[in-house]
Design goal:
The structure is a single chain. The chain has helices spanning about 60-70, 80-95, 105-120, 120-130, 135-145; strands at about 10-20, 25-30, 35-40, 50, 55-60, 100-105. By secondary structure, the protein is of the alpha+beta class. The strands form two sheets. Strands 1-2-3 form a three-stranded antiparallel beta sheet, with no helix packed on it. The chain is globular.
Length: about 150
């Protein structure tokens, strides 16, 4: 494993344990430079291809999904463990669909449905990018249609 600080592969595993949900293994690593970092080992059932809106295909990238979700949740009161479980659940749900090709629309809808229940602000943030809001009225129309904020 390559150390994120030194960019060298001279690391050792200090601790290894399964995650709470049992879907991956968390490993604490130590580099010869003294830095410690964590890696996760996950099961990948099948290779998924994402079909974009323009018809292009690319391999499913969990890190890309993770990055977009973390951006939507930036400065929100949701702990990292909850976010990781959320991302794992989406990835697993995609694999369980039993299809080798998944549309980007399917992924976006799953993320939005999950964020709607996890954090309403992150839900609107994600929707603004996913639905490509261009003006203030786009936000207003979207928020008026949803009942997430009306309950509060």
């Amino acid at each position: 494993m390559i150390c994120p600080c030194e960019k060298k592969g001279e690391t050792s595993v200090v601790d290894s344990r399964p995650t709470e949900d049992g879907t991956s293994i968390r490993r604490r690593r130590l580099c010869v430079c003294g830095e410690r970092f964590t890696t996760f080992e996950r099961i990948q059932i099948r290779e998924l291809m994402v079909v974009k809106k323009n018809g292009r295909k690319s391999p499913f990238d969990r890190d890309k999904l993770s990055k977009s979700i973390y951006i939507a949740l930036k400065k929100r009161p949701i702990d990292t463990e909850t976010v990781e479980k959320f991302i794992t659940n989406i990835s697993r749900s995609l694999e369980e669909l039993g299809q080798s090709e998944i549309t980007s629309n399917t992924i976006g809808t799953m993320v939005m449905d999950g964020l709607k229940h996890l954090d309403p602000v992150a839900y609107v943030r994600f929707a603004s990018v996913y639905r490509n809001f261009r003006e203030e009225k786009d936000f207003i129309q979207f928020v008026d249609k949803i009942d997430v904020f009306k309950k509060r």
